[in-house]
């Protein structure tokens, strides 16, 4: 099959390209810099030319993972505008180009996040749950609304709401490992907030499942079926690494250092279930957190 992927320099995008190519598929990388390899196309959402449009002809699917890094800096007004604009403009441009192709892709898979639900405390959330409040919820809702437009031109669209992605060599574990190895791992706030997580292996599996399973359309929660509280997450990681957890990091300290980002990314409680993935027959490689950490981190 033939695919185009945006966000290929990111943790998920880079791994997805390797997975698709390993399975024998052709992958067109849409990149923001000058193209350096035959399978790369320079892509700027606000200035798409004819050559770039032609690169999207005769595709089986497009996977859109592009967006400014949420944790790339304190959420100033400028950073928040960049986070939102990078997702809206990129998705809008892809949908607009797809609408005018001679042969449109059958499937458009667009990234989203469980931040869509906001801070929901103890509420168990499925795809039928409405959006929450806060900046991340607003970003995810607006992002999905742009992706939905693909459906109006006959392209099946799936919005994968990713939880916390765990994998080797990048993502959140790359940031946490030095802290835990130094013995400073600790629950955040009161540690009772729910964390919805998923391994990188299962993220890639969910993307491929979304491409292949034609019954799927609209929002799909890409999370493991066993969310855990933050304190449990920290204890499980420390146990696998043979370390103890430090005292809790008070919420006021996180807010002082990170501002609004602390409340929405570290202290918010999202207890999410992958209802539609499970109903469509998806099987998780790592459904339990302890097993996932052992598979990812335990020495052999």
Helix content: 25-40%
The number of helical segments is 11
Described by the principal axes of the CA atoms, the overall outline is: globular
Instruction: Write down the secondary-structure element order.
Output: EHEEHEHEEHEEHEEHEEHHHEHH
Overall mean pLDDT stands at: 93
Fraction in beta strands: 15-25%
What is the terminal separation in angstroms? 36 Å
Q: CATH-wise, what's the superfamily?
A: NAD(P)-binding Rossmann-like Domain
Radius of gyration in whole Å, from Cα?
19 Å
Total DSSP E strands: 13
Number of domains: 1
User: In CATH, what is the class?
Assistant: Alpha Beta
Please give the order of strands in the largest beta sheet: 3-2-1-4-5-7-11
Note poorly predicted spans.
Answer: none
Structural class by sheet pairing and helices = alpha/beta
Query: What name does CATH use for the topology?
Result: Rossmann fold
* CATH-level-2 architecture: 3-Layer(aba) Sandwich
**Main β-sheet, in a few words?**
7 strands, parallel
């Amino acid at each position: 099959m033939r695919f185009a992927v945006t966000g290929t320099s990111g943790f998920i995008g880079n791994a997805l390209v390797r997975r698709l190519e390993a399975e024998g598929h052709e992958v067109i990388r849409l990149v923001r810099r000058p193209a350096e390899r035959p399978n790369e196309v320079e892509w700027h959402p606000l200035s798409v030319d004819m050559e770039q449009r032609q690169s999207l002809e005769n595709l089986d699917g497009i996977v859109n993972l592009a967006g400014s890094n949420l944790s790339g800096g304190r959420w100033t007004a400028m950073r928040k505008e960049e986070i939102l604009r990078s997702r809206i403009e990129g998705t809008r441009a892809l949908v607009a180009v797809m609408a005018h192709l001679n042969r449109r892709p059958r499937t458009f898979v667009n990234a989203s996040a469980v931040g869509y639900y906001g801070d929901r405390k103890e509420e168990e959330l499925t795809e039928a749950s409405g959006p929450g409040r806060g900046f991340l919820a607003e970003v995810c809702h607006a992002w999905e609304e742009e992706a939905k437009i693909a459906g109006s031109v006959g392209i099946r669209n799936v919005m994968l709401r990713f939880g916390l992605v765990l994998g080797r060599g990048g993502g959140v574990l790359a940031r946490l490992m030095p802290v835990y190895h130094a013995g400073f791992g600790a629950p955040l706030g009161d540690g009772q907030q729910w964390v919805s997580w998923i391994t990188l292996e299962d993220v890639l599996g969910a993307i491929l499942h979304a491409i292949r399973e034609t019954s799927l359309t609209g929002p799909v929660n890409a999370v493991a079926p066993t969310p855990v509280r933050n304190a449990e997450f920290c204890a499980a990681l420390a146990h696998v690494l043979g370390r103890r957890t430090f005292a809790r990091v008070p919420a006021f300290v996180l807010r002082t250092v990170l501002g609004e980002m602390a409340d929405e990314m570290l202290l918010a409680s999202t207890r999410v279930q992958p209802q539609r993935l499970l109903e469509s027959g998806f099987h998780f490689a790592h459904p339990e957190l302890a097993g996932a950490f052992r598979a990812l981190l335990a020495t052999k």
